Amino acid sequence: MPLSPKSTVVGSSDSTIIPSSPTLSIPHHAASRSVGSPAVCASPATSNLRVALVETQDLQKARSWNQDAHHFSNRVSSLTPSSVSFLQKIGAWEHLDTSRVQPYQEMQVWDGETDSRISFDWSMETSPFEDLRTVATMTENANLVRALLARIAASGDENLSIFSNTTVASIENGTDHPDGPNLSAWPVLSLAPTGSAPASEPSRIAARLLVGADGINSPVRRFADIATDGWDYNRHGVVATLSLADPETPTFPIGTRTAYQRFLPSLGGPIALLPLPGNHATLVWSTTVENAAYLKSLSPKAFIAMVNAAFRLSMTDLQYMMRMERASTATEDPHEDELTWRMKHTDFSRVPPMVNGVQEGSVASFPLRFRHASTYISPRVALVGDAAHVIHPLAGQGLNLGLGDVASLAKSIEYAVDHGMDVGDILSLEHYTADRWATNAKIGGACDILHKLYNVPGQNPVAWARSFGLDVIDRVPFVKSFLMRNAQG
């Protein structure tokens, strides 16, 4: 079989990437799957590298993705200002449908057991005459992927090859060809069509550098024999796209959007409501596997009642409602009646607007896990994104860490090219792992500690300590500012 030479190969969340002869191969995961190619091609120093992007899914569907203005995907990401700046730098942001993007300027976080609260915003560094700075920006993953593919198309880069509807059948070291290059230390990928897609691409690709962006079960990581540490949380993240009622008290100042997160220790994790354009929002509720199954089984009215209750009622009330029997008919709605009655006897403040609708088909869940690779590099291999690390979503940092990986790796590749180094040599990659491993470990570890800290229910010393810490941070501006600067990248 002929060996097709490529510089860089990029794959997707459920794909594997195989590079071709003299360059780089990168597998991708989720919304970050197409970031590597524009990041490498954006620099004049690396624009001559031959790059291959391998994707198991049909990229034509991703390019033509379109949604009704009042419907939003439940696969949404929160982008820090640093991530937005990176996407602008590589020319992808201008291709984003900004009518479907929503920045927010404040985040309210509180403890459902003790009601201790902290507000994250930049008011301490903004004058009264300035608009509040953005804390983060919400966008659908599909919107971001389409923008990245549009950026690739606009570049007209003849050194970039895209393999859509293609999967990686195997990865192995190449051989020393008497009449060709010695590929014995190079990863060689065997490609196969996904499903019934026509096999028009070369069947094998060799890579000077194979970049694994192929998700938590990364075949590239297995090929490189890189170990991972981690555990499953025995929790699921329940997601949904919601519509909100107009708040009784308008947000001040006008135009400011707020995200809300309430920790629910007795139910297994936090619930977060993050703003989307108009009166829409996305839900991420981390809870036990049993609670997640219960929530997904409810009627739309009952599900809405549980979400509203989760931001307003006590832990005792919530635990009772989580054990209520499901409605036997579509007309019955005991959860809504129960919420109405219990709210009459509950004091609450600074809660999100009432949820009044859930988009059909948007309620789903995914398992929560923690994983961290022992290293991000080996000879001719680099890992980015979920292939290198998976963290708890409570801080919304997953995609941001992946984008940070891509930006750092692109700099390492650029440095190697500028100095005549082999981009796949371990010396060329050491700066990347030194730059990113500790940073990702710190953020992932902090999220893990917060998850465990806020899974201790009841009024006890742990609850008292976490509430005391939350109150202190909220009252000391420079500490809160320090935390926000670290979170934004």
UniProtKB/TrEMBL annotation:
Annotated compartments: Mitochondrion inner membrane
Comp. bias intervals (Polar residues): 1-11
SUPFAM superfamilies assigned: FAD/NAD(P)-binding domain
Compositionally biased spans, kind Low complexity: 12-25
InterPro entries recorded: FAD-bd, FAD/NAD-bd_sf, Ubi_Hdrlase_CS, UbiH/COQ6, UbiH/COQ6_monooxygenase, UbQ_mOase_COQ6
Substrates-to-products reaction catalysed: a 4-hydroxy-3-(all-trans-polyprenyl)benzoate + 2 reduced [2Fe-2S]-[ferredoxin] + O2 + 2 H(+) = a 3,4-dihydroxy-5-(all-trans-polyprenyl)benzoate + 2 oxidized [2Fe-2S]-[ferredoxin] + H2O; a 2-methoxy-6-(all-trans-polyprenyl)phenol + 2 reduced [2Fe-2S]-[ferredoxin] + O2 + 2 H(+) = a 2-methoxy-6-(all-trans-polyprenyl)benzene-1,4-diol + 2 oxidized [2Fe-2S]-[ferredoxin] + H2O
UniProt keyword annotations, A-Z: FAD, Flavoprotein, Membrane, Mitochondrion, Mitochondrion inner membrane, Monooxygenase, Oxidoreductase, Ubiquinone biosynthesis
Domain FAD-binding: 75-415
Enzyme Commission number(s) from the entry: 1.14.15.45, 1.14.15.46
Short name of one Pfam family: FAD_binding_3
EC main group: oxidoreductase
Organism superkingdom: Eukaryota
Region (Disordered): 1-25
HAMAP family xref list: COQ6_monooxygenase (MF_03193)
NCBIfam families given in the database record: Ubi-OHases
Designated name of the protein: Ubiquinone biosynthesis monooxygenase COQ6, mitochondrial
